[in-house]
Amino acid sequence: MQQTSTISNSIPFQSTEISPEFVEWLTNEKDDAIRHQRRIFKATLMIAAAIVLFLLKEQSEWVAGLLNLDAYAAG
C-alpha cells in the first residue's frame, strides 16, 4: 500500500495533464500489441504442428523408435 503511494508520488505529471487523445492512442497501441502477440503465438504453434506432421510422415520409423512403438508393429 505504501509502495503504491510512493510510486504514484514519483510520477512527474498528474493524470489530468494527459490528453484524452493520448490515452485513446495508448489503449489502441496496447490492443494492437496484444493482437500481434497472439498472431505470433498462433504462427509458432502452426510451425510446430507442421514440423511434427513432417516428422511423422517422413521419419515414421524414427518416430516409432523414439516412442518405442516398433514393438507394437512387430507383434
Estimate what percentage of residues fall within beta strands. under 5%
Helix content: over 70%
**Order of SSEs:** HHHH
What is the approximate shape? rod-shaped
What radius of gyration results from the CA coordinates? 26 Å
**Ends apart, CA distance between termini:** 67 Å
Mean residue pLDDT: 79
How does the major sheet shape up?
none
What structural category characterises the helix and strand content? mainly alpha
Unreliable stretches: none
* Count of runs of 4 or more consecutive helical residues: 4
| Number of distinct beta strands | 0
Name the descriptors.
75 residues; mainly alpha
Task: Explain what the structure shows.
With 75 residues, the protein is mostly helical. It has 4 helices and no strands. It has helices spanning 2-10, 20-58, 60-66, 70-74. The radius of gyration is 26 Å and the shape is rod-shaped. The model has no long low-confidence stretch (mean pLDDT 79).
Compile the SSE list and pairings:
Layout: H1 2-10, H2 20-58, H3 60-66, H4 70-74
Give a concise summary.
The chain is mainly alpha-helical. The protein contains four helices and no strands. The longest helix is centred in the middle third of the chain and has 39 residues, at about 20-60.
